[in-house]
Design brief:
The chain is mostly helical and 296 residues long. The protein is built from 13 helices and no strands.
């Protein structure tokens, strides 16, 4: 990936997505596994529409650099841009953005795990319980992102014109995205543990500062990486909204986009409710500690 997934602000807005579009899509993931090749069909010399499109190994090729779907060499050389309507091209770009931003997000998650969580010096400093609170179920989140990305990659490589991605979003949201609820719900304890470690363990503070200075982090803080899953699930909903604006009304793609958006909204609400619940529990614990019970 050319850039890390940079979605660390408290509120994700449509304007922010647009301004970061080119940044997020400059990706060349090294972690993605090869997808199954789709056999080419016979090529009639007369019609471009019936040609078997060249496969786009955009996520497997570590040397690839691309900004937009229409800028891909495979797209430009195919002649498909002269066939598609402008609205369809915009839809292709919206779907392509969802895929490339997931690739960038996965790379950042991988960095959180390999650079911070698995650092040997950090392991020696943290107790097992502290590490568990700090990193929560990030390994499960990363595994879900990897599976999701591989399915998206395979879909992109099936045809030079992307058929749909929201059906994949829907399936993964329903079957796998509950890991986000667990991670985000633990955010209250995670933040408290991080602040406490910075205050009580100078060695922890020193190691984190050194790790943050590594060029791999692009100047981003450790806490920026910890908040990635919550920011991603919010942004996914916005990306699907963008697709929904561009699909044809009453089409199959509109139906799948609506389904995907509904399920993502459910997960986001569950994440928010999980945070509120944990926050209330934290407040109750704090009050309980301050109470004095006088017993005869």
């Amino acid at each position: 990936l050319g850039l890390l997934y940079q979605e660390y602000r408290d509120k994700s807005t449509r304007q922010e997505i647009e301004t970061r579009r080119l940044q997020d899509s400059q990706t060349d993931p090294e972690e993605s596994s090869p997808s199954e090749e789709t056999p080419s069909e016979a090529e009639p010399a007369s019609t471009t529409e019936n040609k078997a499109p060249p496969q786009i190994s955009l996520l497997r090729n570590s040397n690839s650099r691309f900004n937009l779907w229409q800028d891909l060499p495979e797209i430009r050389s195919s002649g498909v841009l002269s066939i598609l309507q402008p609205d369809e091209i915009k839809l292709q770009e919206a779907m392509f953005e969802l895929v490339t931003s997931e690739a960038s997000y996965y790379k950042s998650l991988n960095l959180l795990v390999s650079h911070f969580m698995e650092n040997e010096r950090l392991k020696k400093i943290l107790h097992q319980s502290e590490a568990h609170i700090l990193f929560s179920n990030v390994l499960d989140v990363m595994a879900v992102s990897e599976r999701f990305l591989l399915d998206l990659e395979q879909r992109v490589e099936e045809n030079i014109v992307i058929s749909d991605v929201c059906d994949i979003v829907y399936q993964h949201t329903v079957n796998h995205f509950s890991v986000y609820i667990t991670y985000v719900s633990n955010q209250t304890y995670q933040e408290r543990a991080y602040k406490q470690l910075l205050q009580d363990k100078p060695a922890f503070r020193e190691v984190i500062s050194q790790l943050e200075l590594d060029p791999k982090c692009k100047g981003l803080s450790f806490s920026s990486f910890l908040i990635l899953p919550f920011q991603r699930i919010t942004r996914l909903k916005l990306l699907v909204q963008n697709i929904l604006k561009k699909v044809e009304e009453k089409s199959d793609r509109e139906s799948t986009a609506l389904d995907a958006h509904k399920e993502l909204e459910t997960v986001v609400k569950a994440c928010n409710e999980g945070v509120r619940k944990m926050s209330r529990t934290e407040q109750m614990i704090s009050i309980q500690k301050k109470l004095e019970f006088k017993i005869k």
